[in-house]
Amino acid sequence: MILLPLAVHGYSLGSSIFGDDGLYLGVGSAVSAIVFLTIVVYWAGSRFYSLGTLHPVVAPVAVVASILPAVFPATHPLPNTDAPAFKFHLLIALLAYSLFTIAALHALFMALVEKRLHQAARSAVLSDFPPLLTMERLLFRIIGAGFVLLTLTLASGIVFSEEVFGKPIQFNHKTVFGLVSWAVYAALLGGRWLYGWRGRVAIRWTLAGFAALLLAYVGSKFVLEVILRR
User: Fold this and answer.
1) SS3 for the chain, per residue?
2) The pTM is what?
3) Max Cα separation, the chain?
């Protein structure tokens, strides 16, 4: 059920991003790419973990995300797209976004499962999910993997800034929110290891880190491209 919309999404995404003169990654393509990779990771993870029956939700999301590049098209290619450092930085950044998107969705479903844990009537989707403790362990595995990729994203942005962007690292709003997100997830993982944080505390920190991550890149591109038309 998921492979057909995923294939259509991947084809349309590739057509919108890869141009003759470089990579066109506007806000529409960026969100579409994050959703595409999120679904790919979810589909691959569902082969090994019981993640619940989200296929009826995932397929429509893939279809909607596939048209975002047409709704919010990129007007010019990204600079320095031929640099290997840029491609490495971009790839791990999108993968980090994808993992944290899954973590945020996972945290939301954990909150719903916890809320309805003592209710007699539960929806078919929620009843298909694994036990709450299993979901919690999986959440921290996802966050741990995403944190590694986010660390590599920030490190590559700092180390290769001159090569990738043609200028030294600048502490603009994108960098600041990226560091804030990193600090939130670092505190969450530290709190889990030192104090055994779990449940609602883990859910709140997960969503706070994801909100900061959205503001770091997607939010900034939306403001620049859609609101300011730059």
Assistant:
1) CCHHHHHHHHHHHHHHHEECCEECCCHHHHHHHHHHHHHHHHHHHHCCCCCCCCHHHHHHHHHHHHCHHHHCCCCCCCCCCCCHHHHHHHHHHHHHHHHHHHHHHHHHHHHHHHHCCCCCCCCHHHHCCCCHHHHHHHHHHHHHHHHHHHHHHHHHHHHCHHHHHCCCCCCCHHHHHHHHHHHHHHHHHHHHHHHCCCHHHHHHHHHHHHHHHHHHHHHHHHHHHHHCCC
2) 0.84
3) 59
Q: How far apart are CA 72 and CA 123, in angstroms?
A: 35
**Cα R_g (the chain), whole angstroms:** 18
Sorting pLDDT into bands at 50, 70 and 90, what band is 148?
Answer: very high
